[in-house]
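Exercise 7.
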Amino acid sequence: MTDIATGRHSGFWESWKACGLVIAVTAAATLAIQYPGYLNHDVAYLTWVADRVMHGAVYGRDVYDINPPLSFLIYVPAALLAQFMGFDPAIRLWTVAVVAVSIASLWQTADKSYRMPVVAALGIFVALAFPREFGQREQFALLLCAPYTAGHTPRRGLAVLNGVMAGIGFALKPYFLIPLALIFLTRRRLRLEEVAIAATGTTYAISIILFFQVYLTEYLPQTGASYWTHGVNSTSAILQFSFLVPAFVGFIWWFSAPQPGRGGFAMAALGFTLAVVLHNKGYPYHFIPAFGFLALYLAASLRNSRTLAAWASALFLTVEAFRLSALAIPWVVDVEDRRTTIPALLQEINRSASFWVLTNYNYPAFPTAILTQTPFVGLSSNNNFFSAVAAIEAGMGEGDAEALARLARDQAVKELERKPDLVIVTTQWNKYAALETPLDGLAWFKRDERFRSQWADYVFAGRVGSFELYRRR
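Solution. The predicted structure, written as tokens, is:
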């Protein structure tokens, strides 16, 4: 069939059926790859927080997390679905639903000359890249912002949808305002999408003031001093990954002919890369939006009228695919032994009345807590302040070590006073504190008389992997 307006042949690959096929294949491939493994601990924990807050818990007092409220609000639909099917499938289906909406909206918004390779690239990236990080906020940022990044649309309803999604995506983390600013440089004027983004951001800001005052006025001031001590903070990893994005974008941009709407993908890739550099954490999943938008930009450039740009884009896509495949290997081969450790921990948890985890990392409290009916009695998935104290005492951070030590011990005592039947204690404190000096977190907490008094009721009950088990007498 021929399109009368353009004279171009419009067959299956330019119809809605092609978009539907991409969505179906992406969903099937994603779920097939994901279900042999366990959900990411951050994703599982934030969905649990959403559920707790919906049941009346006060964010920043009854449940702790260092991230702003939108970090768990994005998982509220999954928490609602979990009432009917359990957390694990609900989180996966909610993420796949966002993937479907993103691909459909991108299909409607992107220029027709390259929309098929672009939506295919988004689908392949979601299914195959960063499999360990499925459902992470960075993946949501990529999915929610992609349609807006593709350009403006004359359809009012779609424009509002794209703007609202982008407003949520860019608000997930403060640094995400950088790519928003760069993308706006490619726009000629404010349109309905930008109005929707501003309205969404304003609504979120007002909601924090109205509904999350405890987090804003009590918890955030306490965590601010400790935030920069969490994470690997690997400058070499950041530079290694960050170099590829501007190098690839710059080369293609220099040698290619102009393409309508493609510039938004380039600015998003560069903006999210700059966000990672300024964030200075170094976790691989922070690069999801940067590499995702790079893939979209290169996919669009496959249809560039200049042969060098098109062939270079194909080459760079291949290089990016091989580079990202290295990040997927640890998840595929299960280097952390989660597929053996989690079932063993669940066996111990399931025969307990309640459980708690003493660690400085979200794992193994999650995803185990969403896979059992046994109540998890912690305020958080980990001790929010211990790593900060250890870093400051080792001379690797700045802050009031005494105040942070008090907060760390207060949190642990509050959790222990809930008298969990089973306590899981990590033996790898250094791994997550990124310190060379050997750490013994349990011994550190025992310095506190209140903790030591409560801990007297517990006896060693075995070991699972790198975790020690203690049971209440």
